[in-house]
Every structure is written in C-alpha cells, then in structure tokens.
C-alpha cells in the first residue's frame, strides 16, 4: 500500500481509510483526472475559499479553469517527484472531495513539512477535514519519516483552527503579514505538532476521543 523512492519515502501512496459521518475517507495521490471536480468544487465554493486563500489575480473562474488545473497539477507532480511536496486528493467513499498537501518537505536535522488542505462544502460538517488532517499528519510522520508538521491559519478562520486543534496542533505564535490573502497581507497563527505528542498516531487519538468513529458503520 505504501510506496516511494529513497529520497521521498511515502510517495506515491494511499493512506488507510478513516471512518466519518460522511463515510470512508482516505488520501490518494492527486491525479490529472481530478481536474473536472477540482474546477467544479472550487468555483462553487468561491465565497468560502477566496477570503482564506492566497490572492487570486483576475476572475476566480478563470483561475480555476481546465487550463489552470493542468498547469497547477503539472507543477505539483513535478515537485512530488523531486521529493519536496506530497499532493493528495481527499476521497470520500471513492469520490474526490478536496485536496491536502504536505509541502516544503525537509529531512535531516529539520525533518519537517507544512500541511494545507481544503474540502468541498458539500462534505462539510461530517469530520472529513478532521480525518484528512489526521491521515495526512500520520502519513508525514510514519511514512515520510518527519519529526514535525506545522500549519498557518488565519485567526478568523475558526473552522480550520478547530480542525487543527482537534488533531492536536498547538498554537506557537503569530506570523506578521506573512501571506497575501484576498488582496492584502494578513497575519497568521503558526501551529505545530511533533511526533512525540501523537502517541499511537493522530487518527487513533481522534478515534479514542470519540471525535471520529472507530470504524465504518
């Protein structure tokens, strides 16, 4: 189930399936075939995504066209082959539901990466994002072999802050004007998690606490 290269263990790979109220959730390598759903879902969720994501120049629909998808996915897969990034599709019962990326992968004395994700609103409120973050964090630590995973999040993005907190991420500080979001430079909170804090794994902790079901019903 797990595969990869010596310089990039854990890629390409599919994760185990996590139970949620929406059904089974897993991560799998992002594919060029995901473009139609990616465009459809991103365009439909402009009102939710634009205020929390890096600034898009021009029209939102143009920025999420098939042509832009092909450009984006080519770049992501190239970086995955270089071992610096792991781009995943989030699946719910085999259907594309969003995207999760492990980026700036560094081994050696740094041994860390960042995690970023989005989930289509049609799957929201069912634990999908929480499961995806749990699966992604476990994958980064167990199979890519990293010691630390971190994320940045807008202070006003309460939904994402809740997801990260449930997965065990600690707030570590504030990054001042570090990302250009929706037309202006915005502060972000820095959150992090190290392998020593995860016990038997993030997903297992979410299941033990009852945040996620232990098995599919």
UniProtKB/TrEMBL annotation:
Stretches assigned to the N-acetyltransferase domain: 39-196
Any one GO cellular component localisation term in the record: cytoplasm
One Pfam assignment: Acetyltransf_3
Key words, A-Z: Acyltransferase, Transferase
Record keyword Transferase present: yes
One example GO MF annotation: protein-N-terminal-alanine acetyltransferase activity
UniProt protein name: N-acetyltransferase
């Amino acid at each position: 189930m797990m595969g990869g290269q010596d310089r990039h263990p854990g890629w390409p790979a599919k994760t185990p399936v996590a139970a949620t109220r929406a059904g089974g959730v897993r991560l799998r390598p992002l594919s060029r075939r995901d473009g139609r759903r990616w465009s459809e879902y991103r365009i439909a969720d402009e009102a939710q995504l634009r205020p929390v994501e890096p600034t898009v120049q021009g029209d939102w629909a143009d920025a999420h066209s098939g042509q832009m998808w092909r450009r984006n996915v080519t770049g992501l897969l190239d970086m995955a082959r270089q071992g610096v990034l792991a781009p995943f599709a989030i699946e719910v019962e085999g259907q594309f539901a969003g995207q999760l990326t492990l980026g700036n992968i560094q081994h050696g004395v740094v041994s860390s990466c960042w995690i970023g994700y989005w989930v289509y609103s049609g799957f929201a409120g069912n634990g999908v994002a929480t499961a995806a973050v749990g699966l992604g964090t476990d994958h980064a630590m167990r199979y890519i072999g990293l010691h630390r995973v971190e994320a940045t999040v807008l202070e006003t993005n309460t939904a994402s802050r809740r997801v990260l907190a449930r997965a065990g991420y600690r707030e570590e500080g504030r990054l001042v004007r570090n990302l250009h979001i929706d037309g202006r430079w915005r502060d972000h909170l820095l959150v992090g998690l190290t392998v020593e804090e995860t016990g038997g794994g993030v997903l297992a902790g979410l299941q033990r606490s009852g945040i996620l079901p232990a098995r599919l019903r």
